[in-house]
Amino acid sequence: MTLVWLILIPFIGGLLCWQAERWGEMAPRWIALGTMLLELLITLGLWWSGDYQLPAGAMAGAADGAAWAMEWRVPWIPRFGIDVHLALDGLSLVLIALTGFLGALAVLCSWTEIVRRVGFFHLNLLWILGGVVGVFLAIDLFLFFFFWEMMLVPMYFLIALWGHSGSDGKTRIATAAKFFIYTQASGLLMLVAILGLVFIHYTNTGEYSFSYEVLRNTPLSDGVAMWLMLGFFIAFAVKLPVVPLHGWLPDAHAQAPTAGSVDLAGILLKTAAYGMLRFAIPLFPEASQAFAPIAMGLGLVGIFYGAVMACGQHDIKRLIAYTSISHMGFVLIGIYSGSKLALQGVVALMVAHAFSAAALFILSGQIYERLGSRDMRKMGGLWGRMGSLSGFSLCFVMASLGMPGTANFVGEFMVLFGTFGVAPWVVVIASAGLVLAAVYSLILMQRAHYGPSRDEQRFADFDRREYAMMLSLLALVLFFGLYPQPLLDTTASAMSQVQQIFSVADANAATTLLTGAR
Amino acid sequence: MLTMTHLVALTPLILVCITAVAVMLGIAWQRHHAGTAIASAAGLNIALLSVLVIWQMGPVETPLLVIDGLALFAAILILISTLVCVTLAHAYLEKYPGPREEFYLLLLCAAAGGIVLAASRHLATLFFGLELLSMPLYGMLAYAFRERHSLEAGIKYLVLSAAATAFLLFGMALLYAQTGRLDLAGLAVALTEDPNAWALAGAGLMLVGLGFKLSIVPFHLWTPDVYEGGPGPAATFLASASKVAVFVVLLRLVLVAPAFQGDWLHGLLAVLAVVTMLVGNLLALAQSNLKRLLGYSSIAHFGYLMVALVIGDGLAVETVGVYLVTYLVTTLGAFGVVTLLSTPYSGEDAAALHHYRGLFWRRPYLTAVLTVSMLSLAGIPFTAGFIGKFYIIALGVEAERWWLVGGIIMGSAIGLFYYLRVMVTLFLVEPGMQRRDAPHDWGVRAGGVVVLGLALLVLLLGVYPSPMIEWVKLMAVAGS
């Protein structure tokens, strides 16, 4: 039942926020903050009390029937064998905790930014988070799709109603529509793939089922598996984003309100990586194995494209958006390398990127609040004029470029190290991308915070709320950078399952190759 | 020979007709707006109850009509949408300067026509039902005949509808000339024995006639104008009950008659389906009038529905059932809001999109209804529309018709664009422009309650569709 409450709490909290607007505009903020902190506390409680390190014996058996730390299941649409089936393991736990934390940050960072229609804003914000938690918990494919599509609607409203108009005359509504259509249309491809899988299962057994565990064992011919896998992959690739499908991201980030950017970069992008780890690879191991070189190639393209584009941006939020694309390239490479080290690195990198990107977006939101612009051509020499803001910027820019001691370093290092055994050339090229990361990070710092200042005007220093946000983020980045073990322990079993699936597929492929050769 | 069983099976139809006659006599005796509306609603409710009783009986056939699961299913949908129209009309016509009571008479006649049409198993009843459905609609669409647009809508529908009827009759004549039969079962047998070009042409011409009523591309040209011009309740009826009845009879034809399953016509249907969804959605993009937009959207939705006709087996009947229910509930909700905003009647309906700017900040619940309807039309989860779309895509995937599936995905992606535009308009800050508004107490009036109920139903069907699916499955089994 706890799992149901995890999903319901943000939804109920959102409705309360909407209605609470009549008691003044502070009420929705406090309710939203309380809701997200409650969510975070519950997750941390689960983390504390539960055991997510499965014994080695159970791991061998886990290859066919995944083992969950918690499970909840009731029939929903018996006609098609659809259940409300929620399950929690280490991976989803970490990501839900992340959702709770960033959700609280998103509420905090819009404390002074959003002044109009506060209640409805928090309704949308909390519903996005509720949908995301649903995505992380749903194990029935229909339910997963349900939440996957549902979370787009409040995000659309967030961008369309509270967004900023773009610097080059693009309206926020057009941007929001672009975001929605990209993700919704690709989502429909995933629905088609899900249905294809279900009907193949139906022809084999005469029973409808959308259950993850049942469908995992569906025998598929190679060609069909590849097509179905592509259906899933494209949906996730749009959200991650993988480069040819990334068109919505820079605009959406640039024009979303700060809270929207924090959610988008911190959590929504992670749903895509989660989807690949949870669904695309376990459902189609052989096809994923065959597709891995292409996926890694796309990851490489993403790393370089994102970095090069980031160097040419004037809008500070667009710059950070492009760096996200670059970082997600590493995630994609790690996911498809199939080595356990790299997969654990992916989790670490996802968490680290969530913190650093969220922090950078919050910082640019704060610059915008003080300066009234996000254009770096109008900045320069901010160091010393904005109190501690520039110092924090420096810290998080360093984190984002993967400085040792920060969590990002742990993630990138593990991804590269783990992949090296599988695809050394990919790692060599990807490492060159790290140089570009240093370039765009320095450009950001140099143009915004150093250099000649345009005037001598001084801006307000951080207040206590802003200090609290930044310090907690910085503490987490450093903590996981210096001692990532708790994170790795929690997700170890989930990741080793993925790794096993991959290696089994590899072995199968090798056998087919051998028998073919004979 | 007409027996007692037949009479019992026909009770809903008879009850609707009795109500129509009673309303007519009542008008002749003394005009009373509220009384007429209440009498119509009561008659429709009793008819609805009788359908639920007859549901237990199993199929009954008379020479001209068949009362099976499909017919009863259609009857329920038609009666419910007529009830909604009556409730909306009552509020809408309250301040109408001309005679108000006749609207209910027309509505009841059209409902009776729809029920006959959906239950027909003979070309004579098919024609009779179709005309009984269409004739009152001319009057309803042109009811506010002092408005240029309303009159134009009525006349346009009259002229084009007559042309379509001519096609239909010609098709029937060709089929009759070839086979000498007019009942559907007989036609089916005769055509299986001896399929030839003339019979095929006949079937094609009938398809044109029915396609016109369903506004399938390229017979859709009348739709936006008529939707825009007709008074709210009339447009609601046209978009809901009328389409359901015609679609059910088309489904019957396609399922029964092998001429429709021939390769050539089958291919034609598939092409028409794809073209209809794409053209409907594309043309809707440029609309700035909500009623026109809904008109194009309904074209697109019937494009999706035609996928079920093309595939015609497996889940097809169940899909049609589920989709029709979800489409009906959603459309009634959307048109209901438009009608309520134009209530009470004062000239042209408030349908231009700028009337809706910032509606949320004035009428949050009414806007919520329209938002839910738009989301449902777009097929977003948590709404009924998603279940319908899920069924259609499932059907396409099951039959491995990838072109049709591709068309649905393309159409949905394009469709999102204009549904989102309407939605965001509702929430935008209002400029100081002059605007129309629903009466202040809309939420507690009959029309408001109905519209709110529809929105809740859309959400309920989206979250917990099992009972509906079970019910439709029952219909599909009973119907086949």
UniProtKB/TrEMBL annotation, chain A:
What Pfam families has UniProt attached to this entry? Proton_antipo_M
**GO cellular component term of the entry, any:** membrane
Family annotation (InterPro entries): NADH_Q_OxRdtase_chainM/4, NADH_UbQ_OxRdtase, ND/Mrp_TM
Q: Any one Gene Ontology biological process term? A: electron transport coupled proton transport
| Keyword annotations | Membrane, Transmembrane, Transmembrane helix
Domain called NADH:quinone oxidoreductase/Mrp antiporter transmembrane: residue spans: 138-432
Record-annotated membrane-spanning stretches? 27-47, 90-111, 118-139, 185-204, 224-243, 290-312, 319-336, 342-363, 383-402, 422-445, 466-483
**Name of the protein described by the UniProt record:** NADH-quinone oxidoreductase subunit M
Q: Which organism is it from?
A: Modicisalibacter muralis
What's this protein's family per the entry?
Belongs to the complex I subunit 4 family.
- Membrane-related topology note: Multi-pass membrane protein
| Record localization | Endomembrane system; Membrane
According to the entry, what is the taxonomic lineage of the organism? Bacteria, Pseudomonadati, Pseudomonadota, Gammaproteobacteria, Oceanospirillales
Where is it predominantly found?
membrane
Gene Ontology molecular functions: NADH dehydrogenase (ubiquinone) activity; NADH dehydrogenase activity; ubiquinone binding
The organism sits in which domain of life? Bacteria
From TrEMBL, chain B:
Q: What is its EC number?
A: 7.1.1.-
Task: Kindly list the GO molecular function terms attached to this UniProt entry.
Answer: NADH dehydrogenase (quinone) (non-electrogenic) activity; NADH dehydrogenase (ubiquinone) activity; quinone binding
Keyword Transmembrane helix on entry:
yes
UniProt GO BP: ATP synthesis coupled electron transport
Kindly list the residue ranges recorded as spanning the membrane. Answer: 6-29, 36-58, 70-91, 103-120, 126-145, 157-177, 197-222, 234-258, 264-286, 293-312, 324-345, 365-387, 402-421, 442-464
A single GO CC term, please?
endomembrane system
Predominant subcellular localization, coarse grouping:
membrane
Instruction: Quote the InterPro entries the UniProt record gives.
Output: NADH-Q_OxRdtase_suN/2, ND/Mrp_TM
Q: Which reaction does it catalyse?
A: a quinone + NADH + 5 H(+)(in) = a quinol + NAD(+) + 4 H(+)(out)
Q: From the Swiss-Prot or TrEMBL record, state where the protein is found.
A: Cell membrane; Endomembrane system; Membrane
Signal peptide from the UniProt entry = none
Q: Which Pfam families match?
A: Proton_antipo_M
Where is each NADH:quinone oxidoreductase/Mrp antiporter transmembrane domain found?
A: 120-414
Any coiled-coil regions, as ranges? none
Q: Which keywords fit this entry according to its UniProt record?
A: Cell membrane, Membrane, NAD, Quinone, Translocase, Transmembrane, Transmembrane helix, Transport, Ubiquinone
Topology in membrane: Multi-pass membrane protein
> Is this entry keyworded tRNA processing?
no
Q: What does this protein do?
A: NDH-1 shuttles electrons from NADH, via FMN and iron-sulfur (Fe-S) centers, to quinones in the respiratory chain. The immediate electron acceptor for the enzyme in this species is believed to be ubiquinone. Couples the redox reaction to proton translocation (for every two electrons transferred, four hydrogen ions are translocated across the cytoplasmic membrane), and thus conserves the redox energy in a proton gradient.
Q: Which family does it belong to?
A: Belongs to the complex I subunit 2 family.
Q: How does the annotation summarize its subunit structure?
A: NDH-1 is composed of 14 different subunits. Subunits NuoA, H, J, K, L, M, N constitute the membrane sector of the complex.
Q: What is this protein called?
A: NADH-quinone oxidoreductase subunit N
Species for this entry: Modicisalibacter muralis
| Gene name, Swiss-Prot/TrEMBL | nuoN
